[in-house]
């Protein structure tokens, strides 16, 4: 027992050095060497300022921008408080929230049923994507607000629509931040 | 449900089948101390580890010494984790200057990571320093996985060896598991994850200027709502990829961030998602092959595998069906699957994963005692959320946690051959070993511990205010939340119906106790069985021996697992998810 206790202490210390320090620091070194941009979060710069990460969603509410999904992370899209709403499907709080969002969205497109991802929060609260259906739904509003042709906006949406990985994994998706940044390169918002 | 969704599930199962044999053979060689291609690099390091720690690699242990060494290692390493959490403020690699972790939470977290549960009552990105994440939490992902795997190996040795009381050396097995099995694959996998966009750095959090400043309503501590303008986003960083690899490969499941594998920095693409679930099932599936190979009955290994695969398939089908049907209470939404959207119940799910991958991940993570999540189980439909619950209740033997799944299924195999023996009136045998009353008693003890822990704690929590005050979803779903907490803890899973506020004195303490009971009071009876089986003589097979290979055995094994689970938990399930499902169909909300 005493012998094994002494081994346990040394074993913990030695393996902590190898697996708790050398391994993660080694991986950090290799990652920074080979995949510097990705290892650092794919931050996007605009006019010399950092404006976001390509793969972390951020809130947009103006009519000239595509809107992301609702978010339960902090006050919305707060990457220091990631997480979902954790509301049960039978929870009135969920049903009320969705009802309100549906009404708001139907006012821009009366009678249409709303693509479900546009009125539900994601698991992370940081979902960078919306479904192509949710993007299509917003094209008329964005085009109207910017005074450009719908087809021009549709072309941009297509540009930022990613197909399934390897053609079959996951779902097609539209990156909201990249799309909105590109929109701003087009005729200015008035 | 879509053809593409089914194809992904089928493709996943195919990859797992293909990995089973090579991994099984590799692990057999590692633990039999045969030559492997990694020896030239790793053997010298292994020798240094033994010299530094004072391990005599020739020494073989009886089951009692093995158990003692395992407990001492778990105890000492748990104490070190507690110490790191409690002093992180003064230690390096804390760019966000997080304070020391509170004692209750620090204890709960230490218990949770030592037992391979990785239940998390905190948000990683706002609580733990990089040093705590690496040297404390990620280290325990390695350590607890290795402990689980070597225990499974000891059980296999107990079945395979005869007339001996020696079962191997805990320190040697653990070292070889860490260095040969876990480290190389984690090293490669973490770089694959980085290539997909999982972050890996030691930088402070990045502050970015929002393109469009937002006006938000904030409710202060006094309950008053004020309007604030948000102009910045603070993006959490950290050494995530190195932890992500072992989190999945060791079936630990503790996320670097609160959102776990739903977070784009932990699981950025459908490909990284696929890679993660392959890592989760790889070792548990490979161990069934190791079981067959070490005991000399490869067909037994595959029979066990088939029983597991069947239960997996039933589970994933149910979740996929339930989630794809969506939530009938969300009026005005379009939940149909089409070329432009996955549709279904998208609350708590990510667009890039959609329904099929969320259903698959949820099934895999709860079949194995992983507990990582890429979608929020609390927001699943009642039946979709019930499957993860049942998967853990069945003892996580559907592939199961690394090692834990295998020794868990051996317990059920012993019960199954015992039941078969009772039916034909013969002393049951298992691969040439007579199964006697001591073995069956120990097997029952392992099963009953789990039951008592889950139902006992849940019963207290649902009648006392300190338990019910943490419930966030009213109605029958509230019972499911509490039940899930103890099922997940006792089963050492770690996933949650995360709306439940688990960071309270009661939940931190009671879940920690449930985790410790679920781990150590499970493995000690299992080790006792191994020790007892190893001592026995081999009885030659006769015409009356019930075979532990083939379809009949696999069906008996599945039935045993389902009957034990149903008899124990059906009443609780009918008051939780089943009732909620019926009320939801009737249009009721809470």
Write a structural description:
The complex is a heterodimer of chains A (190) and B (590). Chain A is mostly helical and 190 residues long. Chain A is built from six helices and six strands. The termini of chain A are far apart. Chain B folds into two domains: 3-202 and 239-585, no CATH class; 206-235, no CATH class. Chain B contains 17 helices and five strands. In chain B, the strands form two sheets. Chain B has a two-stranded antiparallel sheet. In chain B, helix 5 (130-160) runs parallel beside helix 7 (241-249). The chains are: A mainly alpha (190), B mainly alpha (590). Chains A and B meet through helix 1, strand 1, strand 2, helix 3 and strand 3 of A and helix 1, helix 2, helix 3, helix 5 and helix 6 of B. Strand 3 of chain A pairs parallel with strand 3 (333-334) of chain B.
List the helices and strands and how they pair.
The complex is a heterodimer of chains A (190) and B (590).
Chain A: H1 2-34, H2 36-39, E1 43-46, E2 49-53, H3 92-108, E3 114-115, E4 129-130, H4 132-146, H5 150-159, E5 161-162, E6 173-175, H6 176-185
Chain B: H1 3-31, H2 39-53, H3 63-87, H4 103-114, H5 130-160, H6 170-196, E1 206-219, E2 225-235, H7 241-249, H8 270-295, H9 298-325, E3 333-334, H10 354-367, H11 382-393, H12 404-424, E4 429-430, E5 433-434, H13 437-463, H14 465-468, H15 476-490, H16 505-535, H17 550-585
Antiparallel strand pairs in B: 1-2, 4-5
